[in-house]
Amino acid sequence: MLHTILLQAIAALWLAMPALVANPSAVIFGGGTPMDFGLQFRDGRRILGDGKTWRGLAGGGAAGAFIGVIQQIIAQSTGIPYFPEFSSDALTAVIIAVILSYGALLGDSVGSFIKRRLGIGRGERAFLLDQLTFLIIALLLVFLAYPQFFFTYFWNIPAIITLFVLTPILHRIVNIIGYRMGKKDVPW
Ligand code: CTP
Ligand code: MG
């Protein structure tokens, strides 16, 4: 029983890693042309804002997907059940890692879109929106593309609780580190 709970929790965290890595990586790679090209929405505010750039999307997405590929190789060569493969098929594994990684950054942009519509400025705090939108969208895209994978690993209570409790905590810790390293202007 405890073994199963632990297995489900750790496996979910392991498989969500490309999504969890993509976001902080965007901070490292970000800069340059904003994804909304500086354009405003009909409410007169920026569509996404200067915090969402093409370089962040491309670089952060690639970093997350790269981690997924490394994980797949580790999973395949060790066979440890706590660290499962994304798929027994290598191509499918890469596709799932890409969906998780780029899905997280698209979700992060959805979060910014909602923030701007609510009148919350770029870099201003939005509790839960900042920390969980990217995860929800990444998981939603996995559900749409690979429902069987989604239900096997993400659709159980230990997985959901672990991801939704640990993600904001990890997000916070990583942002404080980024802030101390001078990569982020604010520690959230
Ligand atoms: N970043 C980027 N491109 C992305 C996502 C993030 O360049 N697609 C970089 C930006 O430099 C951004 C930083 O990572 O400032 C931190 O990301 P985040 O906290 O998501 O952006 P914020 O600046 O807080 O903007 P927002 O209020 O829109 O979330
Ligand atoms: Mg922010």
Write up this protein.
It is a single chain. With 188 residues, this protein is an all-alpha fold. The chain has one domain. The protein is built from 7 helices and no strands. Helices cover 68% and strands 0% of the residues. Bound molecules: cytidine-5'-triphosphate and magnesium ion. Cytidine-5'-triphosphate is lined by residues 26-27, 30, 49, 51-53, 56-57, 105, 108, 112, 115, 122-124, 184.
What is the mean predicted local confidence, pLDDT? 96
State which percent range the strand residues make up: under 5%
Number of strands: 0
Q: How many discrete domains?
A: 1
Distance between the termini: 37 Å
Give the fraction of residues assigned to helices.
Answer: 55-70%
- Global morphology: globular
Please mark out the parts with pLDDT under 50 across 5 or more consecutive residues, or reply none: none
Listed once per kind, the bound small molecules are: cytidine-5'-triphosphate, magnesium ion
Report the order of strands and helices: HHHHHHH
| Biggest sheet descriptor | none
Q: What is the number of helical segments per DSSP (H or I, 4+ residues)?
A: 7
Sheet/helix structural class: mainly alpha
Q: Using only CA atoms, what is the Rg?
A: 17 Å
Describe the SSE topology:
Elements: H1 2-15, H2 17-29, H3 54-78, H4 90-117, H5 129-145, H6 147-153, H7 157-180
The structure holds cytidine-5'-triphosphate and magnesium ion (MG).
Summarize the structure.
The protein is mainly α and 188 residues long. It has seven helices and no strands.
Key traits:
binds magnesium ion; 188 residues; 68% helix; 7 helices; binds cytidine-5'-triphosphate; mainly alpha
